[in-house]
Amino acid sequence: MKSLVWKIGLFIVLIFSIAYASQAMDKGRPYYEQKGYVLWDVETEEKVIALTFDDGPHATYTTQILDLLAQYDAKATFFVIGKHVEKMPEIILKMGQEGHEIANHTYTHLYKVTPEKLKDELKKTNEIIHDITGSYPLYYRPVGGSYDDNIINTAVESGYRVVMWSWHQDTQDWRTPGVDKIVSKVLSGAKPGNIVLFHDAGGDRSQTVKALEEILPELQKQGYKFVTISELLEITSMSLKK
After folding, report:
1. Using 50, 70 and 90 to split pLDDT, how confident is the model at 187?
2. 184-221: buried (b, 16+ CB within 10 Å) or exposed (e) per residue?
3. CA distances, 47 to each of 40, 94, 242 (Å)
4. pLDDT digits 0-9 by tens, 107-165
5. Do 7 and 51 reside in the same domain of the chain?
6. 98 and 187: one domain?
7. Are residues 40 and 107 in the same domain?
8. Do 108 and 24 fall within a single domain?
9. Which residues are catalytic?
10. Element at 197 (helix H, strand E)
């Protein structure tokens, strides 16, 4: 009888341990948002939207995108890869001079990474960006948007806020789905406080450039202002204080 009671007790403890471990491993978006560790989008009534670009810089596409943004007085945030930055410092310098925000997207664009390796990748890219611009990046975006508790904690401990994107505003332009689909995705879902995901490198991004030629004037016509992640957070903070 004692053996049976002991086994039942052990089973109950095991069930609670598994449940607790599962909860700890999968904290989810509400937890990270409440802590201020991760940003997906913001709540605001102001017609502001943050355009973000991953995987650059690229000698052709990033330059074309910068020229387009300048036409519409639009600011954006570029999540750059360190090894690309090393080869094209002049583009990074141009980004900073034109008022865009430069953020960290690791050094080698690894999908699977240990905390130690991530820390090294972030630091390496951090220093490269600082050497060119004189400023350290504030934000980091996980490769492929893939994250877990280790990745978030490592980024936060390294001084970063993790920035994702509005889930309905993933253009999936890396799939080259066609200009019309990219345009439709952004325009049909545009809401104040959105963070939109584009790519300016990692493949043929001509569709992204052509889509922006339609997206920028249309959203501007609708009254939207294009801001960096820092500006988006500042506007939101000011709105909450009113």
Report:
1. very high
2. bbbeeebebbbbbbbbbbbeebebbbbbbebbbeebee
3. 17, 27, 16
4. 999 988 999 999 999 999 999 999 999 999 999 999 999 999 999 999 999 999 999 99
5. no
6. yes
7. yes
8. no
9. 54, 199
10. strand 195-199
Spatial distance between the Cα atoms of 145 and 174, rounded to a whole number of angstroms: 13
The alpha-helical segments, DSSP class H, found in the chain are 2-25, 28-35, 61-71, 82-87, 89-97, 115-133, 149-157, 179-189, 206-221, 229-241
Q: Which of the residue ranges 15-19, 94-98, 131-135 would you say has the lowest mean pLDDT? A: 15-19
Indicate whether 26 and 126 sit together in one domain. Answer: no
Q: What values do phi and psi take at 141, rounded to 5?
A: -120, 125
Of 78, 48, 42, the closest CA to residue 166 belongs to 42
Q: 129 φ, ψ to 5°?
A: -65, -40
The count of structural domains within the chain is 2
Same-domain pairing of 128 and 201: yes
pLDDT of residue 236: 74
Residues 41 and 26 in one domain: no
Q: Which domain holds residue 148?
A: 36-241
Same domain assignment for residues 139 and 195: yes
List, in sequence order, every residue forming a beta bridge with 78; answer none if it has no partner.
53, 102
Token output for 190: 């545009």
Closest Cα partner for 102 from 172, 158, 160, 175? 160
Q: What is the CATH number of the domain that holds 42?
A: 3.20.20.370
